[in-house]
Amino acid sequence: MAYMTDRKRAEGMGSAKEGTHHHWWMMVSSAGLAVLTPFFLFTFAPMLGKPHTDVVAYFDQPFPAIIAALMIVATFLHFKNGVQALIEDYVHGTARKVTLIATTCLSYAAAATGLFAIARMAL
Amino acid sequence: MPDVNRGNRPLSPHLSIYRPQITSISSILTRITGNALLISALLVVWWLLAAATSPGYFAVADGVLTSIFGKLVLVLSLWGLCYHLLAGLRHLYWDNGGSMEIAWAEKLGWACVIGSVALTVLCLLIIGGLA
Lengths: 123, 131
What we know:
The complex is a heterodimer.
Chain A: H1 6-10, H2 19-44, H3 52-58, H4 62-90, H5 93-122
Helix pairs in contact in A: 2-4, 4-5
Chain B: H1 22-53, H2 55-65, H3 68-95, H4 102-130
């Protein structure tokens, strides 16, 4: 270390050059979610508390099923990238890596579970 | 890094020193609502999974979500969703270079806070009408 030049010590310590892509993806997913949210809210929420047969029959229709599927995928991918910024700000070292892996896995698992549920009712 | 002087550089004042302002509060609320909405999103997925599984399982999940506690969580989530949506639109507007002045930033902050409450009430009325 003592023989390293200042430049050598600084090299590779800069940004990962992926910030623009991350930001753009958050813009794309937030714009999509801004449109999807009212559609999902007003199809999903009235079904709460309804009889089981009504709920299954409702999500057997194309429009509510497609809206719910899109909402689930967009939400959890938006969450995956959003929580990444949160973790990178507040969690450090190995804990950061572990938390990032855990939230990424949770996001995909939840999206897959939601899609499976919609597919099972719709098909 | 033993050879780096960390002692007498000027440092940012700690967060607790700042007076809370609508710009900082509306910013951190965006982060809090966005991340807390994970709980609601997981509840919705659980409810859908239960509906796709069996009438018995659906009765359990639907019972939890429509209980007093469940409704409290869902209404708070609806407010969080409305707030995060408005704050997100504000972000998209800012990202396009719009209204960067402090006076406008403060107005937009209040618009998010007050607008989210108004939007929550409006959504509840619409959902009540549809249900």
